[in-house]
């Protein structure tokens, strides 16, 4: 199976949502689906009158067989619902984040569910998803337990001084396949005096803001030409007036189905993504699904 969509699945509600999203992506991309289940070596200790003692003490084998049974049943259902979709399964031992990432070396997309909250109201990203995001070699989509009503739009955050072409391509390609539009947002966080001047008719302030808008259009034009079927709405936010870049994107994400952000690699670490404040804000607070797309390897 070449360049599949990989999904982490363990029968939890958030992983079921991830599976639904992964199937949709695999079908629309015309590629295969790889369903991954990570299992541990932890022994299930007997507790109470109805406790079960593991046969022969073979913890690893029992857990592996359980994982394989879950995967076989799930794959059979997905194949029946999606004739022609190539589905493979992998039961992988060990720590869940590392096990999931190890199966995505040849993937074009990795989909995970977010358990989230964990005692901290408003924080939507679980620890497993966060570690997967940090180490994934490919774009990762994080979905929440309950799907929101479809909005028919995608939002991509753009740094016009350091644009991520991979994130832009991901946004336009996804929008084209889904038949939706793209909101392309840039948050400029220049000194408050410049934003104030632009808002109050000062010529220098207006010229500065126009230069930002022109640069955004310049970045979008090639993608508009490549994907003429995608309707694009450029948006410019003055960070000092609207909040930080992360805050602005989270607020804007309330009207979209998917928020896309880029992530730089950590210095000296191949396939290690540095999740900055914008990514963290999006992943922890955006109500919609979030895609984190690595910047192209500069090496």
Supply database-style keywords.
299 residues; alpha/beta; Rossmann fold; 2 domains; 11 strands; 41% helix; elongated
Note down, in words, how this protein is organized.
- The chain is 41% helix and 21% strand.
- By secondary structure, the protein is an alpha/beta fold.
- The protein folds into 2 domains: 1-41 and 51-143, HUPs (Rossmann fold, 3-Layer(aba) Sandwich), CATH 3.40.50.620; 148-299, Rossmann fold (3-Layer(aba) Sandwich).
- Strands 1, 2, 3, 4, 5, 6, 7, 8, 9, 10 and 11 form an 11-stranded mixed sheet that branches.
- Helix 2 links the parallel strand 2 (33-39) and strand 3.
- Mean pLDDT is 83; it is low at 117-124.
Note the overall shape.
elongated
Main sheet: strands, sense, barrel:
11 strands, mixed
Element order, helices and strands? EHEHEHEHEEHEHHEHHEEHE
Radius of gyration: 22 Å
CATH superfamily of the largest domain: HUPs
CATH topology grouping of the largest domain? Rossmann fold
Q: Tell me the span between the first and last alpha carbons.
A: 27 Å
Quaternary structure of the protein: single chain
Would you tell me the structural class of the helices and strands?
Answer: alpha/beta
Secondary structure layout plus pairing:
Layout: E1 5-8, H1 13-29, E2 33-39, H2 59-81, E3 87-93, H3 96-102, E4 109-113, H4 127-135, E5 140-143, E6 153-157, H5 165-178, E7 181-188, H6 192-199, H7 203-226, E8 232-238, H8 239-242, H9 245-252, E9 258-265, E10 273-274, H10 277-285, E11 289-294
Parallel strand pairs: 1-2, 1-4, 2-3, 4-5, 6-7, 6-9, 7-8, 9-11
Antiparallel strand pairs: 5-11, 9-10
Helix pairs in contact: 3-4, 6-7, 9-10
